Amino acid sequence: MNLARLDLNLVVALRALLEERNVTRAGQRVGLSQPAMSAALARLRRHFDDDLLARVGGHYELTALGQVLLDRTSTAYDVLERLFASQAAFDPAKESREFKLIASDYAVSVFGTELARVVHEEAPGVRLRFAQTPTTVVDDTATLLSTTDGLFMPHGVISDFPATDLFSDRWVFLVSHDHPSVDGHLTRHDLARLPWVTYQRTYDAPAVRQLGMLGIEPRVEVSVDSFQLLPLLVAGTRRIALIQARLARLLAPLAAVRAVEPPYEAVPLREALWWHPVHTHDAGHVWLRETAARVGRRMAETGYIAPSS
Known about the structure:
Elements: H1 9-20, H2 23-30, H3 34-48, E1 53-56, E2 59-62, H4 64-84, E3 97-103, H5 105-122, E4 126-132, H6 141-146, E5 150-154, E6 163-169, E7 171-176, H7 188-193, E8 195-199, H8 206-213, E9 219-224, H9 230-234, E10 241-244, H10 245-251, E11 257-260, E12 269-274, H11 283-302
Parallel strand pairs: 3-4, 3-5, 8-9
Antiparallel strand pairs: 1-2, 5-12, 6-12, 7-10, 7-11
Helix pairs in contact: 1-2, 1-3, 1-4, 2-3, 5-11
């Protein structure tokens, strides 16, 4: 494949055609006339030796290859957009730019809120867009990082990409204030016999993997896709939940629960900002990383806990 002979404008047309599945709407979306978009479709069909869009009744459907290209084209478009948005210099007080960051609700709650406050004060034209961490993060980390500006993720889950450390945290267990069989502490036997509420994304659980090494198999009764829901699902029940200490303190007013220290030396959590090497020398991204690191250092120095809303 000779990339020098390809017209990159076709990437824009291909994405619009595959998503709209209609030549006229695709043209309107990218500012091309219907004949011009039809010509682009003809060129794409010759290149891929496939119809891409096949008429079925009164509408078009994607061919098998068109369906494969749908996700790949979106990824390629995002990569190209970020590539050509790179800057040699960046003035946060004057620039207008959006940074997309992948993060769990935990990372946004205890760190993202303070990062957003600092960005609001120092870079009024900069926007932060937080998106939930997908379940495929460990399966195709390179693709995910190439289409975003950064990923908040603790060490021990992914590797082989540049990262800057942000803050540390520790793990505690939540139990209901009126738990009938847990007084001031938990035992390892309690961890095996009591029902659990867990965060359902297994890739985010180095501490849970540690339990397996100790021979403890959690008896999961409820699993959720949000760390912030754990206290509500523990309160008034016999359930227990493993949660980050910073988030437990932040959410303490929301539910009648209390934090209990683990009956073992739990591995600490070290949150980091990970990024794709393509961003390393982009001036705007350098500013984002330095700002995030500065916020993390301030959290470490002051013991900052994000204010509850």
